UniProtKB/TrEMBL annotation:
Protein name (record): Centrosomal protein 55
Entry keywords, A to Z: Coiled coil
InterPro entries: CEP55 (IPR038926)
Species in which this protein is naturally found: Otus sunia (Oriental scops-owl)
GO biological process: establishment of protein localization; mitotic cytokinesis; regulation of phosphatidylinositol 3-kinase/protein kinase B signal transduction
Transmembrane segment boundaries: none
Domain of life of the organism encoding this protein: Eukaryota
Chain coiled-coil ranges: 20-120
Cellular component per GO, a single term: midbody
Length: 182
């Protein structure tokens, strides 16, 4: 059960499919052979089975071969771990670069929007200045008309009409100013 769990971990780590890799089947075969050899060695050690020198040499060679295979597989695992870490680092770096690019794009958009608003604001400021100047002129005229009306024989109706016109114009200028300057 433990070897199955380790196998599942290795399969999950590299995304391999169970039974799809030749090296996986070789590894399983070597595990079985290793287990059989260990069992034989245990029997020899316990004295149950007398082993001849050629058998012993064959077993030792097989153990040595299996140990080399184990080292080879461990080396492959280390290489895959390094490759995985390298890919993770690249992914992190790519994500950071994407974030920087996104922020740069947003900054460029905001800068363009600010420039556009600036271009729109300049003519409006000129219009507001002109309206303020006109308002001052109209106010001066209004005072002049009021003074003349009090001293001259201008009819009251004409004076009221002019005064109403001036008040409406002042309201219009004030509303225009509030809309475009504020």
């Amino acid at each position: 059960m433990n070897s199955k769990t380790a196998k599942d971990i290795i399969i999950g780590k590299w995304g391999l499919k169970s039974g799809s890799s030749r090296s996986e089947s070789d590894l399983e075969k070597y595990k079985q052979e290793n287990a059989a050899l260990r069992k034989s060695m245990e029997e020899v050690v316990k004295g149950k089975n007398k082993m001849t020198d050629p058998e012993r040499n064959r077993l030792l060679e097989k153990i040595l071969s299996l140990e080399k295979e184990k080292e080879k597989h461990n080396h492959l695992i280390e290489e895959k771990d390094k490759e995985i870490q390298n890919l993770k680092d690249k992914l992190r770096s790519k994500n950071k670069n994407n974030e920087v690019s996104l922020l740069q794009t947003q900054l460029e958009e905001k800068t363009k929007e600010a420039e556009r608003r600036e271009r729109l604001l300049c003519p409006l400021s000129e219009v507001v200045s002109q309206l303020k100047c006109n308002s001052s002129t109209v106010t001066a005229k209004c005072y002049e008309i009021e003074n003349r009306a009090s001293t001259s024989q201008v009819s009251q109706v004409s004076f009221q009409e002019t005064l109403n016109f001036v008040r409406e114009f002042k309201t219009y200028v004030k509303d225009f100013h509030d809309i475009f300057v504020s």
